[in-house]
Amino acid sequence: MSQSPDSPTPLVGIIMGSQSDLKVMSGAADILEQLHIPFEVTIVSAHRTPHRMLEYAEGARKKGLKVIIAGAGGAAHLPGMVAALTTLPVIGVPVKSSNSIDGWDSILSILQMPSGVPVATVALNGATNAGILAAQILGSTNAVVADALEKHRAVQRDKVMRSVEQLRR
Ligand code: RP5
Fold first, then answer.
1. How many CB atoms lie within 10 A of CB 69?
2. Total domain count, the chain
3. Is residue 135 a contact partner of residue 35, using CB atoms and an 8 Å limit?
4. d(CA 124, CA 146)
5. Strand pairing partners for 71?
6. Fewer CB atoms inside 10 A, N or C side of the chain?
7. Sequence-ordered list of residues with C-beta below 8 angstroms from that of 65, at least 6 positions apart, any chain
8. Rounded to whole angstroms, how far apart are CA atoms 57 and 46?
9. How far does the centroid of ligand 1 lie from the alpha carbon of residue 56, in Å?
10. Nearest to 112 by CA among 136, 83, 89
11. Is the pLDDT of residue 1 over 90?
């Protein structure tokens, strides 16, 4: 399990069904690192390591996690099953796996949760937004995180405004 170096207590758990999801899911880690939010990353497969999934989900709150980001592709049951096993907020990232039907399998199997057990589903391969959403959840009660998010928004705004200026010239 890897962890950001700056804090001993991860607030966000990033999990994924397979190492093949890492390329996509590293987007969540990158943005959390930029926002200085401590996180951990590991592989948990709903189908191949179901007992590990159960242990991870049931132990998440106790070890201090506040939000879980779960990415998976194909028959992507990991986010939903983790959501069923914890009351922490779970953000689901549908990963477009190589054999997928344009990613619709991943999207629908994460998105279509039964009433009562929500997963906040982001876009296909939308791991960066999952990281930002996790930060926003933390930022609702943490002023330092809220400030980091404001700064991140300002950077985006300035970038757009620079391109507006360039087009004017
Ligand atoms: C899912 O199956 C994983 O989340 C991954 O997206 C997909 C393919 O996994 P591998 O066969 O590459 O391990 O469980």
1. 29
2. 1
3. yes
4. 26
5. 16, 93
6. C
7. 10, 11, 12, 13, 40, 88
8. 11
9. 18
10. 83
11. no
Mutate to test the pocket of ligand 1, among 18, 78, 82, 96 (most ligand atoms within 8 A of CB): 18
Residue 90, domain CATH? 3.40.50.1970
SS3 for 26? helix
128 lines ligand 1 (CB under 6 A): no
* ipTM of this predicted structure: 0.97
Q: CA–CA separation, 156 vs 67, rounded Å?
A: 24
Which residue's CA is minimally distant from atom 7 of ligand 1?
A: 73
Alpha carbons 160 and 61: distance in angstroms, whole number = 39
Residue 113 has pLDDT above 60, yes or no: yes
Q: Is the CB of 97 under 6 A from ligand 1?
A: yes
- Domain holding 104, by residue range, is 2-168
Nearest CA to ligand 1 atom 6: 73
Q: Tens of pLDDT along 5-32?
A: 455 699 999 999 999 999 999 999 999 9
Angle at 81 (CA atoms; ends 55, 5), nearest 5 degrees: 55
Q: 74 CB under 6 A from ligand 1?
A: yes
pLDDT of amino acid 2: 56
